[in-house]
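Reminder: ligand-aware prediction takes two inputs, not one.
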Amino acid sequence: MDGNGRWARRRGLPRVEGHRKGAKVVQTITRACRRLGIEALTLYAFSQQNWNRPPEEVQALMELLGEYIIEERAEILENGIRLSAIGDLTKLPSWVREPLGKLMEESSQNNDMELCLALSYGGREEILRAVKIIAEKVCNGEVQTKDISQDMIEENLWTSHLPPLDFVIRTSGERRLSNFLLWQAAFAEYYFTNTLWPDFEKEELMEALHSYGVRERRYGLTSEQIRGSGVSGVD
Ligand code: IPE
Ligand code: MG
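Here is what comes back for the chain with magnesium ion:
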């Protein structure tokens, strides 16, 4: 979700107004995904690196997050949404972490859509953490080095409760991952748009999903293998 600051600047507004409009778009897009039957939606709301922004902006983002948790509570619970979070949540102020934890707990039995907030999240940090957990198990003899597998790494990522990542949308014209779901994105499809996040609306979500829908994901195989014809032609 990128481009909140530029959206505000173009209107001569403080950056926080861009974040506020961005939070509204989160609501619109979450509702749309829920109605469309999307199994899981992960929102990159705050990265590990975002902690280095000016303290006033970090504070404003935390306040917006706190408000979001209070304001969206009913909608999350009424719509069968299970809320989760990935990232180093210990860094969040307790007045955000506690209500967040409570809503995650309250919504834990919901099954209609997983809404996952990436907060204080970094992909490299996530992989490093998994490496340390596994190394610890090797050291205490629980696991043998030869038995370390991709599945084991996945089990120790913050995303272990999520289905495989299919599709990544990045707004605001940047064409990079910026430390988002690095391991998980190995076979994901990407959609880059110049639209700033506060202007991202349902119509563009539909366009993005359509673009996803017509792609062929081959995972290194041939088109014929994927289509199940078994005939390898010339292409
Ligand atoms: C994304 O918008 C929101 C967060 C990272 C929290 P930005 O704040 O990065 O907006 P730009 O990139 O400055 O336009
Ligand atoms: Mg940005």
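Residues 55 and 61 are 10 Å apart (CA to CA). DSSP finds eight helices and five strands in the chain. We will return to this case in the review session.
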